[in-house]
């Protein structure tokens, strides 16, 4: 009897040992697969924007203009698994992409010949592995635009908060012109202007840019400001004051229109403006352009869901203007 019990115990122990080894092998396989190399995974599980064509997805990509400004552009790209990779592929300077966006006066930011070896997304961190062709640029501005343009494009996806750059499997400390890439990078300081202002705070204002005067588009610009209180009023005053000199930028705020006051109640920003005369805004189109310029600048404030424009404290109807107010904040800056 004692021998039978001992035999059963030995068989059970051997079974556990065998199963344990198999379990460890499985675990090793999982770890090895995760560490083998970054792979393409879905990045589109939340808040998907679908275009009218069910096979296409509205996606914001970043290109650059002749003055080196990064410009966000809504493009429709084919719906597919791993669409974040597809987004970056549509930013590489191949003949098709280059010719396509040349029609709106812009240029790709990722050098020709670049390939995306792999990509992974986990807990908000996107690791993306490029071939070294991505390092074929000629200036500090191009280097900055590659890094920021990729980070801003990928973080348009709700599952991505920051980006770790890899170059043929390696993480390096900094690029040729000093851009630090050793650590994951978040959105920060797009088109930062050096205007000689002191202050650690930053504010984003949308101005207008153009290519050869033929094409125009909205350009998000980061301005350093003094003080820690970054708010709606400061952002709009920068917009109404106009862009700094020698930037080649302008606004859709018509001449004869001045900002009087800004207040926020229950998520709605009330923008009170003064007009030199009712002719300062001559049409619904002009009013819509001004409204969009204001709305884009308001996008950076998470507590703002909508806005209304007042004329010297009166609604448009009370002021005798037959214009329609904007319906919510604009979704895209530039659509082509």
Automatic annotation (TrEMBL):
Q: Which InterPro entries match?
A: GerMN (IPR019606)
Membrane-crossing residue ranges in chain numbering = none
Domain GerMN: start-end pairs: 84-176, 232-320
- From the UniProt record, list the coiled-coil ranges: none
Fetch the PROSITE patterns from UniProt. Answer: PROKAR_LIPOPROTEIN
SMART domains listed in its UniProt record: Germane (SM00909)
Q: Name one Pfam family in it.
A: Germane
Q: Which domain of life is it from?
A: Bacteria
Q: What is this protein called?
A: Germination protein GerM
């Amino acid at each position: 009897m004692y021998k039978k019990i001992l035999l059963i115990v030995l068989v059970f122990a051997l079974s556990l040992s065998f199963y344990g080894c198999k379990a460890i092998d499985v675990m090793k396989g999982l770890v090895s697969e995760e560490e083998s190399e970054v792979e393409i995974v879905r990045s589109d599980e939340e808040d998907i924007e679908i275009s009218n064509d069910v096979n296409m997805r509205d996606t914001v990509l970043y290109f650059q203009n002749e003055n080196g400004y990064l410009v966000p552009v809504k493009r429709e790209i084919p719906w597919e698994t791993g669409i974040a990779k597809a987004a970056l592929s549509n930013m590489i300077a191949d003949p098709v992409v280059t010719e396509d966006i040349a029609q709106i006066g812009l240029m790709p930011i990722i050098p020709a010949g670049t390939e995306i070896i792999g990509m992974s997304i986990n807990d908000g961190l996107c690791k993306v592995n490029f071939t070294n062709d991505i390092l074929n640029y000629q200036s500090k501005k191009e280097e900055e635009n590659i890094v920021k343009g990729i980070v801003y494009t990928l973080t348009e996806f709700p599952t991505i908060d920051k980006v770790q750059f890899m170059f043929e499997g390696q993480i390096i400390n900094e690029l040729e012109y000093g851009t630090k890439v050793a650590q994951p990078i978040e959105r920060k300081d797009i088109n930062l202007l050096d205007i000689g202002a002191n202050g650690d705070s930053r504010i984003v204002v949308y101005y207008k840019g153009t290519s050869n005067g033929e094409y125009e588009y909205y350009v998000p610009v980061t301005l350093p400001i003094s003080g820690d209180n970054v708010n709606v009023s400061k952002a709009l005053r920068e917009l109404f004051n106009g862009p700094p000199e020698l930037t080649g930028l302008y606004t859709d705020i018509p001449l004869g229109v001045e900002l009087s006051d800004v207040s926020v109640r229950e998520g709605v920003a009330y923008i009170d403006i003064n007009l030199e005369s009712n002719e300062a805004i001559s049409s619904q189109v002009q009013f819509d352009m001004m409204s969009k310029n204001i709305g884009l600048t308001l996008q950076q404030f998470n507590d703002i869901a909508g806005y209304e424009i007042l004329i010297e404290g009166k609604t448009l109807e009370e002021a005798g203007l037959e214009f329609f107010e904007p319906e919510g904040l604009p979704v895209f800056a530039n659509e082509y």
